[in-house]
Amino acid sequence: MDTMLSSVLPVFYGGLGNLAAYLAAHVLLCLLPAFFIAGAMSALIPKETVTRFLGRNSSKAVSYPAAAAAGSLLAVCSCTIVPLFAGIYKKGAGLGPAITFLFFAPAANILALVYTGGIIGPDLAAARFLLSLTFGIGIGLIMALIFRSDDAAHDRATDTAFGAQGAGMGRMALVFLFVWVALLLAGTLKLDVLTGTYLDVRLPLADAQGWQAVLDRLVPYDAARGEEGVSLQGVVLIGLLGAIGFAAWRGLENIADGANAWTWISLALIAATLLVAALAVQPVEGGLRVGLTGKFFGVAAALAVLSYIVRHRLNEDELRDWLWESWRFVKQIFPLLVVGVFIVGMIRVLIRPEWIQMLAGTNSLTGNLAGVVFGVFMYFPTLVEVPIAKMFLELGMHRGPLLAYLMSDPELSLQSILIISAIIGRRKTFTYVGLVALFSAAAGLIYGAWIDGVSLLMLALYLAGFIALLAVLLSVASRNASSLKGI
């Protein structure tokens, strides 16, 4: 019994530690704005505004590049992209462009590419961009082809849900959405002007360093393994997150009946929590140093503008619809996120990076598939995957499987798979996961072959063979779908 407990408890603690670190470091400035952006897209943007650029009947030469371009500007991880994906899909975006946005945004946004080039090399960054763009559009096109009947039904359903809205998007709704996106970028971009501290305040908490030492023992910090730990600031933020959940449940669950005191309390708690999350807090000898960063001032300015719009420019119906849609996304996505992050934390305790050299030391099909599998079960938040990839490279991973890992890690985390399944259904999700795994492994094989000195002609033949195989599989899938439809 004791032996079993000694084996099980570290795995369980690994799950709890990973969940605590994720909630403390990534939910607030990333996920909360994403929920409100998704809610605003669902409630305030007419369907025609979305379908003009991303609809299933829009020109493919417009919709797919537009989806990739929108995703390239958002330096956020897959868990933050999923609510935005849900927002545009619910509002009438075609499945194909929505999938391209879902794939490309975390895999090859501008900041991830710059960081990859600086840490690992410009050749890998270029390959990551070109192959993510090509394959992201390809995956979207394939999904739209396979599920074209479902996509048409979804398009009709959004017509029914939102009615025939002939008017364009209101100017205030556009400003409201733009300010939320600005807040998201201010809270997540790693720019010197945002991360720099402009004013320090020292709080006289003599035991601050001792408390942090206790937290470090409970949830270890190890940057080389992607373990982020939990800070004193993180503990405060987790407590505030719990308070937000209670207030939102009391104030948003019945928002259709109108706003109440709890509604405004929940919004005030959210604003205060975002400000706390934007501070730079560090235990020092004899106290706690609190720094006002550029991020703090950017978030504060955005919140001030949002507060004015909510109180003076949104009417009662718009406010109610926005809050309800945002709360609905939270209820749909957040529980699955918690479960997924916890499971990933347990699995990461069992996986050893030393296995990398044995499984992915050569540019083989097995090695690239291993890179994809590591991307699923060793998920790291955006940008953290780059130094982890550097560690994998130093442990002996070939650069081909390394690219397969970098393309799959932001896409196929276990929690993201669970959430996407709740949005588009298990059949589409399993197809998407299979396509991402296939394309990521193919990208790794192609890039790895180039690294190993294979000529461009041979690479072209490899790619042609891959496309031919894919065409055959699609043909079979299309025939099967047609035959099932006729039954």
TrEMBL record:
Transmembrane segments: 20-45, 66-89, 95-117, 129-148, 168-189, 230-249, 261-281, 288-309, 329-351, 363-382, 402-423, 430-450, 456-477
Chief localisation class: membrane
Membrane topology: Multi-pass membrane protein
Keywords per UniProt: Cell membrane, Membrane, Transmembrane, Transmembrane helix
Annotated compartments: Cell membrane
GO CC terms of this entry: plasma membrane
One Pfam family cited in the UniProt record for this chain: ArsP_1
InterPro entries: DUF318
Family: Belongs to the UPF0718 family.
The name this protein goes by in its record: Permease
